[in-house]
Amino acid sequence: LWMFFSRYEPQTDIPPDVETEQDRVFFIKAVAQFMATKAHIKLNTKKLYQADGYAVKELLKITSVLYSAMNTKGMERTEVSEEDSSKFKFDLGSKVADLKAARQLASEITSKGASLYDLLGKEVELREARTESIARPLEINEAEKMMKIAIDNILEQVQKTNDMLNNVALDEANLEARIEKRKLELEVSQKRLQTLQSVRPAFMDEYEKIEEELQKQYSSYIEKFHNLSCMEQLLDDHRRTEQEMFEEAANILHLMQNRLKEEEQNLLKSGNNDDSDMEIQEDEGSDSEGEERQTMKQRTAMETKVQG
């Protein structure tokens, strides 16, 4: 409100003090009276004092007048020559800071007006309590009693604080003593470790000898294990070869048996021929008997080979 009023009338005698309630009431009444007499703008003082949305509507009455004046002034400037227009040209860049300040002031005015409205809403209750407190006679004995109670509470808190400080000091001393003790124990342990590292144990020579013997035994074990594995592999190969030879001989024997069976069947079929054939067979009997003997000899020879 003061910003708009100062823009409308820069040379004004109205004080802008709004710290107390009376100053705020006087300021709003003076501004409303001035705007009513000079600008013929009627403002609602109650709505302005509430500092809410209705107060903004009242402020729009002043801003509309200022805005129309700026537009009228801008139209007059367009009629001025180029030199005058360049001389009196409105620099918007220089007014950015003023615009930000105006926005900040507007937000502050709104927030303060809202808080003021809330406080004024509680004024009725507070007024009664304030009046009652002022009207009540002051009892010196009761006030003295309350002061003593407050002093005792403060002294008790001070005593507790001192006790806590003393306890902190004792704890600090105990911790320092423990730290020193741990440091001494650490030094003793380090010295003992150094002595143990520097002294050679009595059983170390025997341990090294046993370790060498163990290494030799391990090497011998590895060699024997390797030889045993090779021998087992060779034995498996030999058994596999024998099995293959036996299977091959069995297959050959089976083939020979099948061939002999076929020859016998052929001989039986040829025995059913006529007498002329029998005579021819008698003549050739000696030859067939020789052949049968020869085949029997071959069969026995093959069986002996297979069995071998």
Summarize the structure in words.
This protein has 308 residues and is mostly helical. Among the domains are: 119 residues, no CATH class; 85 residues. The protein is 84% helix and 0% strand. It contains eleven helices and no strands. Helix 1 packs parallel to helix 4, helix 9 runs antiparallel to helix 11 and helix 10 crosses helix 11. The radius of gyration is 65 Å and the shape is elongated. Its main location: other. It comes from Casuarius casuarius (Southern cassowary). Belongs to the CLUAP1 family. InterPro entries: Clusterin-associated_protein-1.
What is the 3D form?
Answer: elongated
The main sheet comes to:
none
Q: How would you state the average pLDDT, rounded?
A: 76
State the low-pLDDT regions, or none: 80-90, 304-308
Count of individual helical segments: 11
SSE series? HHHHHHHHHHH
* Strand element count: 0
Q: What is the beta-strand fraction?
A: under 5%
Using only CA atoms, what is the Rg?
Answer: 65 Å
Distance between the termini: 134 Å
- Helix/strand structural class: mainly alpha
Helix content bin: over 70%
